[in-house]
Design brief:
Largest sheet: 2 strands, antiparallel
Number of strands: 2
Helix content: 55-70%
Low-confidence stretches: 40-49
Distance between the termini: 58 Å
Radius of gyration: 31 Å
Number of helices: 7
Number of domains: 2
InterPro entries: Probable_transposase_24 (IPR004252)
Structural class: mainly alpha
Strand order of the largest sheet: 1-2
Length: 214
């Protein structure tokens, strides 16, 4: 990074737009109840011993530290609730043949973590929609009534914040490009002036060399 680019960056950080962008990022991080360790891997592609894992198992795998302990106290509490619900449903399924064993994980997650967000399915990546994953039964896992309205409002506010942050980034990038272009023009002008001086000096030396000696 060139000196003027660093100065522009520091100036942006100290500007109101830079502070607004920092507040948006801080607010978004604070809203995260628990972190996961999946990194850039798709949730749907997480495998164990060559096979895809269930949603509850996936949560357990991706929310533990390297030493095996839960990432946060919130994650530990959720793991315990999921485990308790799992035991309850398995006990019911062992005596009630009407219980869909394959759907137990979905019901448990819905009860413990609440309805799925619109257009998303927990632990399945951003490209999987509720309709694709749940099929015709997707509505029972989605928010309804006032919850749906609150979810739409939340998504709208998140989008507004993201638009503000994106606009700030674009303006900062444009300012950096303008500063870089101005620096290039100034450098070219300096080189041109220097070349002109060199040419003038050479012409003067040439003219002096052409004068007859006395």
């Amino acid at each position: 990074m060139l000196r003027y680019q660093w100065e522009d960056t520091v100036s942006f950080w100290n500007s109101k737009k830079g502070e607004d962008r920092e507040r948006v990022g801080t607010s978004s991080r604070q809203k995260q109840k628990f972190m996961h360790m999946a990194g850039l891997r798709s949730f749907a592609c997480e495998v164990s011993f060559g096979q895809k894992v269930g949603r509850l198992q996936h949560f357990d795998i991706t929310h533990r530290k390297k030493d095996g302990s839960p990432m946060t106290s919130e994650a530990r509490e959720i793991m315990e609730k999921l485990k308790e619900k799992k035991a309850e449903y398995e006990a019911i399924a062992s005596t009630d043949s009407s219980v869909n064993y394959e759907d137990i994980d979905n019901r448990i997650i819905n009860e413990v973590l609440g309805p799925e967000r619109y257009g998303q399915v927990r632990f399945q990546g951003s490209s999987v929609t509720p309709t694709q994953y749940f099929g015709s039964s997707s509505q029972q896992y989605m928010p309804s009534g006032s919850s749906a309205q609150a979810e739409v409002q939340r998504k709208y506010e998140e989008l507004q914040q993201q638009l503000i942050a994106d606009a700030a980034v674009r303006e900062a990038a444009a300012a950096a490009r303008e500063a870089e272009a101005a620096a290039m023009v100034a450098e070219q002008s300096r080189m041109y002036d220097e070349l002109q001086l060199q040419l003038q000096h050479m012409m003067k030396m040439f003219q002096q060399s052409q004068k007859p000696s006395s």
